[in-house]
Write a structure and sequence with these properties.
The chain has 331 residues and is α+β, with helices and mostly antiparallel strands. It is built from six helices and 15 strands.
């Protein structure tokens, strides 16, 4: 029976002092400092047997060679001895922490429970959980948001839009539900598309540099050659910058560039590249791309601004607040 390791942060196989993002099929370039103080005895025992800590992808084991078998045996013996020592310490603390009145309970192996209420019925606790962060997996199933787990943000999905089951490329995508025949080639085109991903390493160090570099590439993908190099809109005939400047995104200062694009066939449209810093992993820049058809059938341009305002850090319960930098507006 095969098992697939879910996406998440796991110990870096090459740099044990860091954690690296596993996307479900392969390691990515995203790293961060470990978020946990240590691992449980069960995890250490699993590691001593050649298994990875936690549920992360298997880490490469060194190849066998002269003198390595004995060294590995010593490591396994030390790890097992450590687990036994931890178990003994835990058992001693439990025994010493109990008084004589708990003797019967200790012998029976029962787990201590809260005392019953005065009415004789146990009452459920109304106290909120200490962890206010909602489950990311639950949010990912919400049809009203697009969850970018790798970059730690969510985007609101407008009415009449959807998350497609399959997309081309590695970026997360949402698009209008209604499609139409592409003006210049066979196939389906969509009136609106928005993607979320991580900026390439060569995009620049600032949000402005990343957005200005990305806009031409995005225009070509959205209305030029397209993903399949077929020019579904008859190619780009001209472009015009209509907006550029700083903007607040999830409490951070980002930068957007918006172009109007005219095409050989069809109404053309508007493209926008929005870059802003991430707060997780290596704090790489996030790129959110917009493509809205022009004409009566295209989404209103105000939708780009509404989606931008609705971007949130995962777990942020203060919906409707822009946070630091919320007074910044595009110029």
């Amino acid at each position: 029976m095969s098992m697939t390791t879910p996406p998440g942060w796991y110990p870096d196989p090459s740099v044990p002092s860091l954690e690296r993002w596993w996307d479900g099929t392969a390691w990515t370039e995203h790293t961060r400092a470990p978020q946990q103080a240590g691992h449980s005895a069960e995890q250490l025992a699993g590691q001593s047997a050649g298994q990875p800590v936690g549920f992360g992808p298997a880490q490469p084991m060194p190849a066998s060679g002269p003198g390595q078998s004995a060294g590995r045996g010593k490591m396994i013996a030390l790890a097992v001895a450590g687990v036994v020592l931890i178990a003994a310490i835990v058992t001693g603390v439990v025994v010493l922490g109990k008084d004589d009145t708990d003797g019967a309970e200790a012998k029976s192996g029962g787990t201590p429970t809260a005392p019953p209420s005065e009415t004789g019925d146990e009452q459920p606790s109304d106290e909120p959980s200490d962890d206010p962060t909602p489950s990311a997996s639950a949010s990912a199933d919400d049809p009203s948001v697009l969850v970018d787990q790798l970059n730690g943000v969510s985007l609101p999905i407008p009415d009449g839009w959807e998350k497609p089951e399959h997309t081309v490329g590695s970026e997360l995508t949402m698009r209008t539900k209604d499609s139409y025949d592409c003006p210049a080639t066979s196939g389906f085109c969509y009136h609106g598309t928005v993607t979320s991903g991580t900026a390439d390493r060569g995009s620049g160090d600032t949000a402005k540099e990343a957005a200005e570099k990305d806009i031409s590439d995005w225009a070509e993908l959205a209305y030029g050659e397209g993903i399949l190099d077929r020019e579904p809109h008859g190619g780009i005939t001209s472009t015009k910058k209509v907006q550029a400047g700083q903007v607040a995104v999830a409490g951070r200062t980002g930068y957007l560039v918006r172009w109007q694009v005219k095409t050989g066939k069809g109404p053309g449209g508007y493209v926008q590249s929005l870059a802003f810093p991430s707060t997780i992993g290596t704090e790489s820049l996030i790129i959110v791309r917009f493509a809205f058809d022009a004409g009566a059938d295209g989404p209103p341009l105000s939708g780009m601004d509404e989606i931008t305002k609705g971007i949130r850090d995962l777990g942020d319960e203060e919906a409707g607040t822009g946070g630091v930098g919320s007074s910044i507006s595009p110029s």
